[in-house]
Amino acid sequence: MNPEYEAYMCSEEWKGLKSRHPDPRKCVACETTYNLHLHHMIYPKDIWKTQPHHCCWLCEGCHDCFHRACVGERAKYLAWATDAGRVRMIVRAQRKEEGDFQSAADVLATMRIHQRSYR
Ligand SMILES: [Zn+2]
Ligand SMILES: [Zn+2]
User: Fold this and answer.
1) Cα of 30 to ligand 2 centre, how many Å?
2) Per-residue pLDDT of the chain (119 residues; tens, 9 = 90+)
3) Which ligand is nearest to the CA of 62?
4) What residues does each domain of the chain span?
5) Claim: this prediction has a pTM higher than 0.85
6) Separation of 81 CA from ligand 2 center, angstroms?
7) Which ligand is located closest to the Cα atom of residue 88?
8) Which ligand has an atom closest to residue 64 CA?
9) How far is the CA of 45 from the centre of ligand 1 (A)?
10) Cα dist. 98→28, 70, 78 in Å?
């Protein structure tokens, strides 16, 4: 990862963009509202010029999954997945390939079980 990117990720600009991002606060792939990351779908040449529409929300698990899908020959997926629908498609395909696909309903059911056990 390049140093400019690292610096941006720690910046007030990035924090500000996250807090004013207009999309609903849920993962575009599985719809969970926990552990959300803002994923860059489009990398502007100058990372400091990132706009809200360059990014979408992914939960930690789906974010990892997306980047696992974009290695080697499949790195081209990164350039292709420029909207939330395409990001969702790649995450779901990757999950299926890895055999741990969970539908949004499964995830919600799991969350409810967790919430109950914490009460
Ligand atoms: Zn997710
Ligand atoms: Zn990402």
Assistant:
1) 15
2) 689 999 999 999 999 999 999 999 999 999 999 999 999 999 999 999 999 999 999 999 999 999 999 999 999 999 999 999 999 999 999 999 888 655 555 655 656 655 554 44
3) 1
4) 3-118
5) no
6) 11
7) 1
8) 2
9) 27
10) 19, 14, 19
